[in-house]
Each structure stands twice: as C-alpha cells, then as structure tokens.
Automatic annotation (TrEMBL):
It comes from Azospirillum brasilense. InterPro entries: ARM-like, ARM-type_fold. Residues 1-25 are annotated as: Disordered. Keywords: Plasmid. This is HEAT repeat domain-containing protein. Pfam families: HEAT_2.
Length: 205
C-alpha cells in the first residue's frame, strides 16, 4: 500500500472559535460545519485528544474527519500519536490512509515510539503498515527496527515491506540487512527480485 502525501497544516483558528462556549461540546453537533469548526478550534488543546479521537471513530463526513486529523497533528503530543495508532486497524481505507498521513506529519520522535510496537502485532497487515510508516520517519532507530523485521518476521510480505521501506530511505548501510533476507527465503522469487533491486539501487547501477 502506497503511503500518501502530507497535507498542509493550517494553524489559523476559525472565526467561529471566538463565539463562546466549549468547542468540545460542538463535536457532537448534528451540523457537520459546526463539528468541523469545533475540531479546528481544538487543535491547540492537548486536553481535547480523547474527544477528538472518539469523534474520529464515528465521523462520516470527510471534511470533518480531515479537520479532526489535522487537529491531532497540530497538538502533536505523544498522546495525540497514541490516539491515532488504533485507527490503523480500521477497515475504512480512507480513515486508515488519513491516519498514516497524519502520523507521517508528526515529529518522528513523537510518532516512532507509538508506531514501533506494531511491528510485533499479531495482524500481519498492521505489521506491514508499521514497516511502511517507519520507513517514512526520519528517526535514528529506523534501520535497526526494519532490520529486526527482516531478520525475524515470519511473514514474507511483511519482510518485503521492510525492504521497500529501506530502499525508499536510500541508505546504503541497509544493503547488508536486505541481503540477509535471501538466506531466510531462498526459494521466493519476489525476495530474489527485491534483493537484486536493492543491490542495483545501493550500488548505483
């Protein structure tokens, strides 16, 4: 699954934020415009993370959902990242992609500790999402984490996702790690193809 491009984060507050009342209450308003206004107004309130995450689970309006995600990115705390991570298991592809995009936009030091544990999740799809996302986070632990996937994950598709993530990172130090996958899956043609592609990439051929 390809990861999506980062959205622009608008830090400006909506004019309606000064209308009075607690925007937390507006999150449950029947009017999508009011819910969107509330989410925008709450983007500088770390105490709103639980309410924003809870609303995100139920929100069906795409523009409100986008604003909820943007608010969590603007808050940018470990709690905000932790609130996003469970949505990676959603069956809603749009929500899942929005969460991946949002985690990419957070500081790597904030997002990585919340995403890395998914590399040992029981669900192989979650491990794939985690490997892809970790490959996008400029964090000093990235190579070691993805090397652990290549060395230990039992599912070849998860390992191939880690290879792809390392190739996108472009660090030649990843090549010995990638080459170890051939020893684990010597008869898999997709592994052979990916390892050869990594050799060509990192050798500049």
């Amino acid at each position: 699954m390809a990861l999506v491009k980062a959205r622009k984060i608008d830090g400006a507050k909506p004019a309606g934020a000064a209308e009075g009342g607690d925007p937390l209450a507006w999150l449950e308003d029947a009017d999508p415009a009011r819910r969107r206004q509330a989410a925008h107004a709450l983007g500088d309130r770390p105490d709103a993370v639980p309410a924003l995450s809870a609303r995100l689970t139920r929100e069906e309006d795409p523009s409100v959902r986008e604003t909820l995600l943007t608010a969590l990115v603007r808050i940018g705390t470990a709690a905000a990242a932790a609130a996003l991570v469970p949505h990676l298991a959603s069956e809603d592809v749009g929500l899942r992609n929005g969460v991946i995009e949002s985690l990419q936009q957070m500081p790597a030091a904030v997002a990585m500790p919340e995403v890395a544990p998914l590399l040992t999740a029981a669900d192989s799809d979650l491990r794939i999402f985690a490997a892809q996302l970790i490959g996008k986070l400029p964090h000093p632990d990235r190579l070691d984490l993805l090397a652990g996937v290549i060395d230990r994950d039992p599912h070849v598709n998860v390992c191939l996702s880690a290879v792809e993530a390392l190739m996108e990172g472009g660090d030649p130090a990843a090549l010995p790690v990638v080459e170890r996958l051939s020893g684990r899956f010597p008869d898999d043609p997709f592994v052979a193809f990916s390892v050869d592609a990594a050799r060509r990439l990192f050798s500049g051929a």
